[in-house]
Design brief:
Number of strands of chain A: 7
Shape of chain A: globular
Helix content of chain A: 25-40%
Strand order of the largest sheet of chain A: 1-2-3-7-6
Structural class of chain A: alpha/beta
Shape of chain B: globular
CATH topology of chain A: Rossmann fold
Number of domains of chain A: 1
Number of strands of chain B: 14
Number of domains of chain B: 2
Strand content of chain B: 15-25%
Structural class of chain B: alpha/beta
CATH architecture of chain A: 3-Layer(aba) Sandwich
Radius of gyration of chain B: 19 Å
Largest sheet of chain B: 7 strands, mixed
Distance between the termini of chain A: 17 Å
Helix content of chain B: 25-40%
Largest interface: A-B, 30 and 28 residues
Strand content of chain A: 5-15%
Largest sheet of chain A: 5 strands, parallel
Order of helices and strands of chain A: HHEHHEHEEEHHEHEH
Strand order of the largest sheet of chain B: 3-2-4-5-7-6-12
CATH topology of the largest domain in chain B: Rossmann fold
Order of helices and strands of chain B: EHEHEHEHHEHEHEEEEHEEHEHEHH
Oligomer: heterodimer
Amino acid sequence: MSVEYRKKILKYIYKAKAGHTGGSLSCVDILNVLYNDTMNVGPENFSSDDRDRYIQSKGHTVEALFVVLADKGFFPESDLETLCQYKSHYIGHPTRKVHGVEQNTGALGHGLSLSVGTAISAKLDDKDFRVFTLLGDGELPEGSNWEAALTASHYKLDNLCAVIDCNGLQISGPTAEVCNTEPLDAKFEAFGWSVRHVDGHNLKELQDTFAALPFEPGKPSMVIAHTVKGKGVSYMENELKWHHGVPSAEQYELAMEELGGVL
Amino acid sequence: MLVEKSVAAGQANLEVFSETLQSLALYDRDILVVTSDSRGSGKLGPFGTKFPKQIVEIGIAEQNLVGVAAGLASTGKKVFAVSPACFLTARALEQIKNDVAYSDNPVKLVGISAGVSYGALGTTHHSLHDFAVLRTINNITIVAPADNFETEQAIRLATEADYPVYLRFGKKAMPLLNAEETTFEFGKGRVIKNGGDLTLIATGETVLPALKAAQKLEMESGIQAAVISMHTIKPLDYKLLHEFAANGKPIITVEEHSVYGGLGEACASYLMQSGLHNRFRIVAIPDEYTVTGSQSEIFNHYGISETGIAEVAKEIL
């Protein structure tokens, strides 16, 4: 579990008095492994056409992305002091005004199509870069995801990997109750994807899973990452109100204590 | 005659589009056409045959069409996303707003069979909203060519544009207008005919009826009407509008679009805020269930015609 990243996510959300706390805590281990192990991308090669691409479809958990990008050296971490402040580039969703962000996202159901287009380009030009996208389980009822899923298998995009941050909760309740999308594996397999399940907080398991890409030649790869919304802070875990809840001073201290002390 | 000739034989602007792109794609493998089962209706069959690696078929899925096009454009491809204007600019509006315009992915959106080109197929297939919705979105240039010269020029400019462009194409054979202004650039209206009694400002396929109305007014009543092809709806050529409004004579705008939110209201807004109080009329499709008919029947019904525009001119003079 990525403890330091979690502390930073909470620090900047607490400071900004805004942010998507629960989802950032559920997806941050996936981002940790992608950026620090799997993907060939960093500030040194970000202008290269050959870099791997990461497009965050569930844009609202941008705090996790910003914290990881700062750690990678894309920008000084102190920039995050301005998160969501007047005239800051660090808004509540990914924006290309922030170095390291590939696409402006935030409206749900957009990331997969953008990723498919990027992956088709690599195929057309015989380039080796790969495209990764992070979807939320709550955004899967958006029909555009399924349009893009069809295109991905039609064009045999084995250079594309989608990860579902499957934390089982969305803003108004459990995803199974709001709009049940299960069985996700059977659905994506039927759409022509190669699917694997993973514990989305087990760094080694994530590492090994991404190291096995593509899961099958000629097929796009889908990783269903089973995660816990609010992971790492006991009182936030699986609690709906932490979708975009901001901790009070007391709650903040308690969370930091649980994570091993204030930064 | 000001209308030199009508290039009827196979020269709908979509054919000009296809031919122009073919000539450009020969030398530029980054040019890509992305289609939504619109290869046939977009006259792109020959392009696809010649350049099979430069056409990406998405199927009937407009949201995905635009998202994929944006992804392709982000890697440096010169992408033309082709789909009927009605679906492209309504169903995929959020993708246009976010994935193209907001994200600065310079996709060239080609809305085909625009306006009421589909005629009796009805409202589902009409796009009378596209100027209005796209005008409110930051970072997109909106162009509706009036003849084959403008179409060809617009495609060439769009290919090299590093910003998003919406090209609005109709279906029918287009003329070649013998214009006063022989150059073309986005954001600069083209003077088709000068005239000091009133000014007709039209766009796209309504420029021809506006020009015919001007000729009729001149022949029958000696009225000298200027005609402008305002091919770029955004950014609008305020300078040219100001120049023609400065004489205080009446202005009539003509468009194949709802009376709301299009060329007419864009002009009216500028004139009013600039203290120019010319008599002013908008000839467009009214806010009602559109009458059934072919494109030309619908045009005639709503006065987007030689006679209709001439009548409005006489009323306002």
